[in-house]
Design goal:
The N and C termini lie far apart (42 Å). The longest helix is centred in the last third of the chain and has 15 residues, at 214-228. This protein is an alpha/beta fold. It is built from 13 helices and eight strands. It folds into two domains: 11-100 and 215-307, Rossmann fold (3-Layer(aba) Sandwich); 120-212, Putative methyltransferase TM0872, insert domain (DNA polymerase, domain 1, Orthogonal Bundle). The protein is globular, with a radius of gyration of 21 Å. It has helices at 11-18, 35-42, 56-66, 82-88, 105-109, 134-140, 143-154, 159-172, 178-188, 201-212, 214-228, 242-255, 288-293; strands spanning 25-28, 48-53, 72-76, 94-100, 229-239, 276-278, 284-285, 301-307. Strands 1, 2, 3, 4, 5, 6, 7 and 8 form an eight-stranded mixed sheet that branches.
Length: 313
């Protein structure tokens, strides 16, 4: 197995946002190669760190890196299962949760994982390495289902053209490789648009999200993480595209909303108070220095909120 390398983005900003207590309990829900986790661990004395990842490659790397640390728990699972994870560990509340959403550098750079249109490889894209592959979706979904996925998850305005091209090509022979799919997408693009960003970029994003159920799991995971926090605990989330960021922004805004009475009411009658506060109002983005050192950080956005009261759902 190639070492699970993943350069953590917004590292200093993320660690600072968690406001780590040396005796606290923290969960890294997308631990990957352990970049963020190692910095959390450095700040703990008698605290506990829970490293979660759904990718078996990541679990192998995390076990090699942290397996001898008595205050680290390594869990092979998806962060959407946070409530189940901490329950099994006998932990009631967390002081902080970190979610670094999306595909990792390791997954992109390991050709045979099938995440990237830059390599010719089996059309896979499974983060957990189990379940249906991208090839399964491309070869079995109806035209309307393909259009929906490409438009909803990739914001691809040429979704209909691409879905028609996929239908046409798979009737000749199954679409089984990243290179063939990339060429099909390119052929479906108007010639004038083929030389902007890579034509297959949005299609690959959309299929990856669909294969891994990313947006549904993000929604469930956010709620589970926030519920698991103790008052004063913080949830820090790094996203890499607008669909993820919009979900995080809206959910945090919901938690931070207080009185919902009409503005012309002289006094509050709803009695609603905020469940959280934003640690910073606008998302933090990569500095010019980080952008130069790690171009993949260009679309990263960090949002963070702090829970301010106990909630019974």
């Amino acid at each position: 197995m190639m070492e699970f390398l993943h350069r953590p983005v917004l590292l200093d900003e993320t660690i600072s946002s968690l406001n780590i207590r040396p005796d606290g309990v923290y969960l890294d829900g997308t631990a990957g190669g352990g970049g963020h986790s190692s910095e959390i661990l450095r700040r703990l004395t008698n605290g506990t760190l829970i490293c979660v990842d759904q990718d078996p490659d990541a679990i192998e790397t995390l076990t090699k890196r942290f397996g001898d640390c008595k205050n680290v728990r390594i869990v092979h699972s998806n962060f959407s299962e946070i409530k189940t994870i901490i329950s099994r560990l006998g932990i009631e509340r967390l002081d902080g949760v970190l979610l670094d959403i999306g595909v990792s550098s390791h997954q992109l750079d390991t050709a045979d994982r099938g995440f990237s249109y830059h390599y010719d490889a089996p059309l896979d894209m499974r983060m957990s390495q189990s379940g249906k592959t991208a090839a399964d979706l491309v070869n079995t979904l109806s035209y309307n289902e393909l259009v929906h996925i490409l438009f909803a998850y990739g914001e691809e305005k040429f979704a209909k053209n691409i879905a028609r091209a996929i239908e046409r090509e798979r009737a000749v022979s199954p679409i089984e490789t990243t290179a063939r799919l990339a060429e099909i997408v390119k052929s479906a693009y108007p010639p004038a648009k083929r030389h902007d960003k890579h034509p297959a970029r949005k299609t690959f994003q959309a299929l990856r999200i669909a294969v891994n159920g990313e947006l549904d799991r993000l929604s469930v995971g956010l709620d589970g993480a926030f519920e698991a926090l103790r008052p004063g605990g913080r949830l820090s989330v790094i996203t890499f595209h607008s669909l993820e960021d919009r979900t995080v922004k809206q959910r945090m805004a919901q938690w931070c909303t207080g009185c919902t009475c009409p503005k012309d009411f002289p006094v509050c009658v709803c009695g609603k108070t905020p469940d959280a506060r934003l640690v910073f109002k606008k998302p933090i983005e990569a500095s010019p220095k980080e952008l130069e050192e790690n171009p993949r950080s260009r679309s990263a956005k960090l949002r963070c909120c702090e829970k301010i009261k106990s909630i019974n759902y």
